[in-house]
Amino acid sequence: MRLASLRAYKRFVIVAWQFLPLLLAYARDRRRFLLFGRPRQVGHETHSRRAERLLDSLLTLGPTFIKLGQLLSTRPDILPPAYIDTLASLQDAVPPAPWPEAKQVLEDELGPVDERFAEFDTEPISGASLGQVYRARLDPETERTRADPTDDASREVAVKIRRPNIESLVNADLRVIKWSLPILLYFVGEARAFSLENLADEFSKTIREEMDYEREAKMLTEIRANFADDDRFRIPDVIESHSDSRVLTMEYIGGTKINELEELERKGIDRTQIAENLERSYLQMIIDDGVFHADPHPGNLAVTDEGKIVFYDFGMSGRVDSFIQDKIVDFYVAVANQDIDGILDALVEIGTLSPDADRGVMSEVMEIAIQDARGEDVEQYRVNQIVGQIEDSIYEFPFRLPKNLALVLRVATVVEGVCVTLDEDFDFIATATDFLTEEGYREETIRNYIDETGQQLRRSGESLTRLAPKTERALDRLDRDDLYLRIGVEDSDKVFENLAKRMIYGMLLTMSLFSTGVLYALEAPLGSIVAAAFSVVVLIQLYRSFRSPKSIGARPQFTRQNLRQRRGEE
């Protein structure tokens, strides 16, 4: 324990030496005199220089901070856009550990290499900040998970080994981050402080999960089962007899990297179809299955000669609860329909946008985002441009990202980038809309909206039938000097104001409908059309007056359970 504390103190000094000048510069960018004074705004070039320095510091500090940088690249609620752009390119650029050290980890978990494997290539085929991957062949006599035990052929596998002594380094760095957090909070605003505290907790959990290969094996197995009947994808099988908490042995599946376009063309692979299949796979994982591969950069995606997509590295994976799934559906449907209010409602309900945000300002942001994304073709717009506009606004407006939603946002952005690399004309929203329509989500959302609107109109009609006799009785009592009004000191719910509006709108509607009938009888078509249009306007206003303030802006609840029940009924 004492040695661990000493190591943590040493790391704290190293980290402070790297970050303190950058932190002071960042604070100086925001306030004239660091902690006080008028707010300052600096240009994109200054932010870019700061971001490059941050990137260099993260790479210098090693594996833990590289992972932290990757997580920060998904959090536009914490850093300005220039930082996000720079950190988005951060890869696991860490030299591989020497083979003797990796071999020690392997043998501590599985026993002698020569006894467990028929062949083992000691040169890693892939290196990451927390582990590295080797190719090997299993010894048929020791493999206990073969589908055909009589098959004596050796099986090619990929063996992922956790970096030697990485646990102690990560634990020390997590302690440093915990100690540093109170200092960081002095340099940022209240909203950023809230997000930073959440980020620290999330990062501690995420990096420990990523080091746990038993968890990765479970996630991989679950996702593989979800695609078991879909021959468009290949997901490696876990070799349980050769896996443990620090070693994960998987079926080796070769393929061409998904961004090697010339090689894909040479093999006659339809890149547009690959892009569509890739997007659909992630929509299924996030919206249908609730468990998803969260690191879809080109290094983790390949294509077989038969055109099947291969997924690698499930260390970074996540889950989405049913509520978030429903709200994601609402968001995509609203984007597809160019429904600005629907987009904002989904963001508020999901917890991303504060209910106190200026909806007028945010509507303008969304309208500009969709306008910019459309281009020349009105129907063509891409989700990454919409997300990009939202990210640019997050730093200035009251946005927050729930934990799992940050991973979903990153996945959506990265997948869209890969799809556009495969086909520069790829329409992400059109594919998403087709998926939602085919699965019944869009139809269910529209059906719920129609049902809700019908209920509102019915209630309005019932109120209208009650309004006329009540108005007549009130006028009669007024004529007899028998009308009393009880008015409270406060009318916070605006009950009286709403009642007055309803009375006025009701009388106006009666007059306009009567006028429409008279004009039509007198064969005055233009006048009757104007009167009818006025009646529609008054009816809409009357309908709105019957909606309580809390219900204004609310949208019908869409749930996956409703969809399943309706499918069962049909």
Mean pLDDT: 75
Q: Would you identify the regions where 5 or more consecutive residues have pLDDT less than 50?
A: 145-152, 374-383, 548-554
Rg calc: 30 Å
Helical proportion, percent range: 55-70%
How many extended strands? 13
Secondary-structure map:
Blueprint: H1 2-30, E1 31-33, E2 36-39, H2 44-61, H3 63-72, H4 81-87, H5 99-110, H6 113-116, E3 117-120, E4 126-127, E5 131-138, E6 156-162, H7 166-185, H8 190-211, H9 213-226, E7 233-234, E8 247-251, E9 256-257, H10 261-266, H11 271-289, E10 291-293, E11 301-303, E12 309-311, E13 317-319, H12 322-336, H13 340-350, H14 359-374, H15 383-394, H16 403-422, H17 428-439, H18 441-479, H19 495-521, H20 525-545, H21 560-569
Parallel strand pairs: 7-12
Antiparallel strand pairs: 1-2, 3-5, 4-5, 5-6, 6-8, 9-11, 10-13, 11-12
Helix pairs in contact: 1-2, 1-7, 2-3, 2-4, 7-8, 11-16, 11-17, 12-13, 12-17, 13-14, 14-15, 18-19, 19-20
Keywords: Kinase, Membrane, Transferase, Transmembrane, Transmembrane helix, Ubiquinone
Domain Protein kinase: 119-464
GO molecular function, one term: ATP binding
